[in-house]
Give the backbone structure.
Amino acid sequence: MTKKITLPLLIIFLTIFNISAGWAFFDVKSEDDKIVTEFKFLPYNIANVKILLSSIEKIKSDIAGELEREGKKTEKIALDANILACDLIKERLSILLDRASKPGAGEADLRSYYTKTMRIWYSLEASVCADNMEKKNIVQGAFYLIKMGVRLLGKPFVVRIPSCRDTDAAVGADKAALESRGLCASDGKIVSGEAMANMTARQISALEPAGESHVYRPVSGNPIDRFSELEKEITELTRICPGGDPDFDLQQARSVFMLEEVKTTATSPKVSAKDRYGFSWKFKWGNEVHTEILATRLYCALGGRYADLKYVISAGEAPLVLQPEGDKDGELKTLDDMITRFKNNGTRNFKMIDWVVPGGLQKSPDGKLLGHGRVDEQFIKKYKIKNKYLGAWYVWFKESSVSFNAPCAKRIGAAAFSDLGALDSRVARGSIIFNMLLMNFDAKDANNKMVLLYNPKTQKFDTPIEYQHDLGCILTASVLEKLTAGEINELDWKWMAKFPGIIGFNMGVMYHPVAWKKATYADAMWMARKVCALEPAVWEWAVSQAKWPSFAGSLLVERLKSRRNQLIDIFDLAAEGFKPFPVNRDLTIKVPADGGVIDFPVLNGRIVSPDKSITVRNAENTQHPEGIYATKSRLDD
């Protein structure tokens, strides 16, 4: 039954929500859709390019000075992501001046190059800012809460796209003027707005974006191979880039992790760790363990140029080595130390002991939890880690996710999702379909990133790539009840609705990128076609990579296929030969249980309560502490 919530009650709820997140209502700090809301974009002209060249030198000097004061060595400063970004911006602005000085320089190309350079600057500014969240007074804060409430409750009318009466009729000049720019026909030539006026929405939706290799690549071959191709690329670049290791092996890298520190700024429980090669990884628990892996696999399968390499680590797969006794600065030498640190950080709804494999835990005489064992010579030889860890405690977890901070990809800051060319970008606009398909209510600038990828040809970090970085908050439950992710039962079989003039998405969002508001029917159809082209094997593969229990994964595949099928109907893709997949909305899964009993973890298309299924109960108790039937909220104590 739908809950009715009045606006005053909504404001009260969201006020409590903000306070529970560590904000004060009369001094609200909040992230808007744009993370750099006061970004100063100078119009393109030669005078402004020269001003920016002078400014970037000053910014680089300030950054380098701060790094020196922190005690960073010269060689480390030279490879700092923000320093590299400054160098790349300077190089591109110099190239721009040179090109502009030559006869026959195309004004449109120069402006495009300038805008892409300023996107790097935007990411640099997002990275450099010590605090990107603006303080809001009481009026601004109340307005912010009301706006957020409308977005959460206004489904399916808030997040929407224009509908199309006839997909195969010419759109006309007025609608053609609203379409994305820089789109290419099959011959590689850019199609003008005038030409689009005589094209149909279907024909416009078939055009591909030009010059967006920093965001997207058309998919060829098996979409499943896209992620493994990315793994191979990152592995090869990590072997040859400055600060890399010629012996790097991705499989070996995630066989063991050494704890560095607990992350205190995130809403999900995280720690930073090093692998056997000394490279950084993010170790994560909570209700996004599975969701991020699913989303990144589908993101790559649909043409995403880059994604963080993320993996689920199951029980017994990779130990976490705690800080050794000889580490004078280390305060995380035992499991008890970690548990205490998370408590002190106020990480909501996270009891680390629930995630630890219970068998074999050792305690001190006073009952302090130490770990599953100490690192010995055999351990060091097996995992090929440094001798300094001899005697350190290590811990096995039921499950976690890990994310590789590759040395060949220097991460800067947020990528502009609502400005600087994004509003004319088919990729940015069309991403509304991908995000709504997976119920991502947390899409904002801050959850996009730019990296500078190492270029073997130039031997520089001069390849800027943008991507959706934090995709864990998908498969979301209503945030008016709890803030969570991975709610398979909450993923609606049908998720879009047609109304006069619009197509609405049946979910609330916390953030609404401006690029989505500019999306046309053709932009959405472009992405819808790519989603519908994924065969059942791709959906099954992506879900299997996330390592949900098999019964939960089977149900999730059915729900995703159903959502894919609706795209065929909404965008009239049957006319192009797309056919709906068979979907079992009444899926029931039988599992043998102890004593000859037949258990039903999935009944009539829903995962059942652990009270009613021993299979679900065992899965939650032994492998998936975040919950399978209903994931734990971050707002609960």
About this structure: Residues 444 and 531 are 22 Å apart (CA to CA). The mean pLDDT is 88. The chain has 20 helices and 23 strands.
